[in-house]
Each structure stands twice: as structure tokens, then as C-alpha cells.
TrEMBL record:
Signal peptide as annotated in the record: 1-28
Chain segments carrying region Disordered: 29-54
PANTHER family for this protein: DOMON DOMAIN-CONTAINING PROTEIN FRRS1L
Domain DOMON: 119-234
Pfam families: DOMON
CDD domains documented for this protein: DOMON_SDR_2_like
Keyword Membrane assigned: yes
The protein's name: DOMON domain-containing protein
Amino acid sequence: MARPPGRSRGAWAPLLWLLLAGPAACAASPGDDGAGPGGRGPRGRVRGDAGADEAVRRHDSSYGTFAGEFYDLRYLSEEGYPFPTAPPVDPFAKIKVDDCGKTKGCFRYGKPGCNAETCDYFLSYRIIGADVEFELSADTDGWVAVGFSSDRKMGGDDVMACVHDDNGRVRIQHFYNVGQWAKEIQRNPARDEEGVYENNRVTCRFKRPVNVPRDETIVDLHLSWYYLFAWGPAIQGSITRHDIDSPPTSERVVSIYKYEDIFMPSAAYQTFSSPFCLLLIVALTFYLLMGTP
């Protein structure tokens, strides 16, 4: 077979060698570290520059470590594209009612035997160092609050409220009752705030100092106060009138140093627990069983 004109057999030898050697042979170049004396190393460095060689080695090593960690910290989507892993979110720790009356005080309002997830209203308190930790929960999509009052009436009260806003967040706000109107106070003693809206319930947890500087709108919790319990709807993150006309209150002043587990039946269960209603039920049952003469 005739050879292509202008090409000798020896001219094909270097090309054939390159094809057989593959990428390793192609990677070498006069600019590599293998260049002869006086040649230049990677990135145009003059050979023999030990400091520059060490800096490049550290750079290459650091880049390799970064690239490996970068890939390890990511996951591939179904399409095969890398996406950053979302940071873990600490879930809201459920309120423990087994500790009520032991390591914390509790108030429950609703059905007998209810807990923090089923009561119409739930509140707990306990001392942690120089603070009091409160936990509140209510069957509402708006707000839940506790007021500290010198009597059992609304007016002149220090109020802490957990408000569910339109963005799905639960914020802790401070109010002061002026008559029947709750005025928001910018000075908020709450700290370590957290809240959640789940299963049509607003639940929150926060701390506030036991002792505070003298202020008309913030009471000292080392003193005993009546507790006012309230909850209701919110419009665009602003509280509105509470759900029931006469919200429950503690029957006596509450001391944060005394842990009790107090249950208050809601209106539906108060009706059937009154002595008169029980007597009426017994009379009607006797009448139906015995019949008329």
C-alpha cells in the first residue's frame, strides 16, 4: 500500500508514541518541575526557589482538602446537582406535665385530666437561677398570655404574651393593661425565647428575671401576684379581645417559690360538677327509673 506523499516512516514514530503513552506523556511540558537546569517550574517559578515551592505545595494541599470537605458537606439531588445541606433546626421541646407540682408549678384549664397539648389553657413556671421560666400553651391560632395582677381584675397589670404572626412565627411581647386595653411596652424583660404554632395551638417558652428595677409596667416576681390567664385571636400579628368574656384567674396569689399543680375546669365541665346540677341529675334519674304513680 502506498504511503501518503511527503511522509516518511520515521515521521510516524513520535505520533504513535504519544498515542500509546496517553495523558501522562501529554501532561509533561518544559514548564514542569522536570524541566532542565535553568528551566521554570509550575506557574513560571524559577527552579531552586525552595520557599516558593513550599508555598505552592501548601496551597495545593489546602485546596485539595477544601475541595474534599466541600463535596463531603453537600449532597446530590435527584438530578445529580449538588445543593448545600440545610443546618439542623432544634425542634421545640414538648412541655412535660409529669413535673407539675414537683419541679415546677402548673395551671391547667379545660377538660379534667388534660395536659399541655389538650388543655384549653396551660401555664407552668419554675425558677432557674436568677430567672423564672414560663411555658404557655392554648387552643388558639392567635395569642396566649399571662398577667401579673394585684387583684383578680384586668387593669394595671404586667402581661407577657406569645403572639402568632402572619409569617408563622411566635413572638414574645410585653404589654401593660390600661383598663380593658393592652398597651404594648417596648421594654421587654423576656429572654431565651422560643415558640411554635402546631395543631392549632400556640405554645411558647421564655425566661424573665425574678428581680427587676423599679418600673410601673414590670413587676418583681419574687413577690406574690394573682395570675390572669387569657388567649384569643390575632389580626396581622396584633392581639384582639380574648376568647371568653371572663378569663380564668388564680383563686389566690401565686408564689414562684411554691410549686403546685392546679386544675380549673372550663365552663362546660363546671356546669356538671356543681352540687345543684348533680342533685338535679340524681332526681331525674330516680324519676325515670321509678316512673310516676
